[in-house]
Amino acid sequence: MNLTKKEYVILTTHRAENVDDPVKLKKLFRAMQIAEMPIIFPIHPRTKNRLNETGISLNDTNIHTIDPVGYIEMLSLIKNAKIVITDSGGLQKEAFWSKTPCITIREQTEWIETVNLGVNFIAGLDETKINQAIKYIQDNYVEIKSRFRSNPFGDGNASKRIIEILKENAS
Fold first, then answer.
1. Could you give the CA distance from residue 117 to residue 119 in angstroms, rounded to a whole number?
2. What is the pLDDT of residues 26-66, one digit of tens each?
3. Which of the residues are catalytic?
4. What gap in Å lies between CA 136 and CA 25, rounded to an integer?
5. In this structure, which CATH number among 3.50.80.10, 2.60.120.280, 3.40.50.2000, 3.40.190.170 belongs to the domain 9-170?
6. Domain-wise residue ranges, the chain
7. Which residues, 6 or more positions from 153, have their beta carbon under 8 angstroms from its beta carbon?
């Protein structure tokens, strides 16, 4: 795709509450224009159908639709993006593990730890909140990236500790 690392946004949206309402869908894509960098949009079939049904065109915008990609390719896109914008719960977590700031276009998230850490920003489909989050990440990128040093999900050694506890209690 001829992309430069950290100079694009990866966008995904597929949830009914975001894509089935043409007004909300238009608001979302209007808000993306502030990014001032390419937005790579692996388009979900549901979203593609809604865009076609409503006549919303992404031609002549900074949003570049591509066919859905496999897991490994998506991980690469996330890791190398400057920002992830998504309504997917799984992608929020993948963004965290990839150390890429995320804007969640939902009203809440399962991954509140990432919000509390200041690396995931809840914006819903509010254009102002989306624009503020994009601008905040762009203006404070280095500082936000430093927040990934902390890991609210543990140190990766839980299985070792569990084995030790099982060994101690086995006798």
1. 6
2. 888 888 877 788 999 999 999 999 999 999 888 888 999 99
3. 14
4. 23
5. 3.40.50.2000
6. 9-170
7. 113
